[in-house]
Amino acid sequence: MASLRKNRTLYIDEEAVSALALLKAGLLYPVTKLMNESQMKEVSQSKLVDGISFPFPFIFAPGGSVNEKILTSAQHGEYIDLICENRKVGEICVETIFKIDLKKRLLNMYGTVNTQHPGVINTYQRLGNYAICGEFDIDTDILKNQQKQIEDAKKAVNSKKTTAIMMALNPLHRAHERLIRQTLEETDLLIIFLLKPYNNADLSYELREEVLSYFIENFLPKNRVLIIPLDNSYIFGGYNEIILDAIVAKNYGCDVLKIGHNHAGANIYYNRNLDDTLIEQMQGIDIAIDMTSQYVYCNECTTLVSTQTCPHGTHHHTSYASESILQLLKLGIIPPAVLMRKELSSIVLSKMFPDRFKNIEKIYNDLIPHTGLLESHNERDLYIELIKLHQTTSLT
Hints:
Blueprint lengths: L7 E4 L2 H11 L12 H10 L1 E2 L2 E2 L11 H9 L5 E6 L2 E7 L2 E4 L2 H9 L7 H9 L3 E4 L2 E3 L2 H16 L5 E6 L6 H13 L2 E9 L7 H15 L5 E8 L8 H11 L4 E4 L12 H10 L6 E4 L3 E4 L4 E4 L10 E3 L2 H9 L11 H11 L7 H8 L11 H12 L6
Parallel strand pairs: 1-4, 9-10, 9-12, 10-11, 12-13
Antiparallel strand pairs: 2-3, 4-5, 5-8, 6-7, 14-15, 14-16
Helix pairs in contact: 8-12, 12-14
């Protein structure tokens, strides 16, 4: 796209950049372009694009008074630069501009317009009154590299069956481990799409990736597991998330989407009936969806079990609730190893509380059995050894 004069600009955020890049890279097929007004109305009613399920119209409606002024004065065929954080990230050629119904848009995405819903209020604040459609350019190099990574990994293990799991891992606990291991028993290659949120996540993406990488490197057949970052933008925030996850996983080359009892990114307790209904309504998305039961620790079985196979009541069960485990970590408390592997909790705590101990070597030598040789220790070593002491049972 070449402009004969200096382009005017639309200011967009990283979430919009991410969504546009997914579209441009073909990862939202059957949607292949920004929708115009008539397409928006049609998809809003049918939830279909060319006979294939898509949960809501894919439109581009950047918010803000400056953007609205540009959109309401834009001319057909005009090129407009797309600016994110003071950097040009792409450009769009105006085909049409049209007004949208904000409440209908929110209802399509979230099933509600209640501003108490975090997704609704976030989208409402960033959504404009006017949408623009037309051909656009935007950088998709990262996504293309990810697609190549997956293809290379499939070839390396001659994968006949590739499975995707979308996970937040905030933090990675024992139930996540069980889900990952169970999935590996049923597939040749596992792609873990690790979610990158745009809000202030309790654990940073970099820390969650480090923990997951350590787990894969040390406790799994690492050639059969691949981590792919997935921007958890607003388009994944609604009750139709499973449909979007299935579409993205399929377009990345996966054959199966594995869903845990607390599906990543939903931030609500897993509703099996709702998910069954959504899956039954899907049309034309050629990917299998496999849902697992809830895992708990049963103090009668004395192990991690599925609620579908454990005969004991819920009063015997310890739930693997990520939010509660995270609260322990935020308070600097080491979660019991039955909830979270000590090697992983030690990584998290050492990053959350750097330089926490004034004299780590003295504490280590006073409390931890050692060989007597002069050794150097760090905070991760201390956390791991403390967990071992917590597991001592002769005095408890």
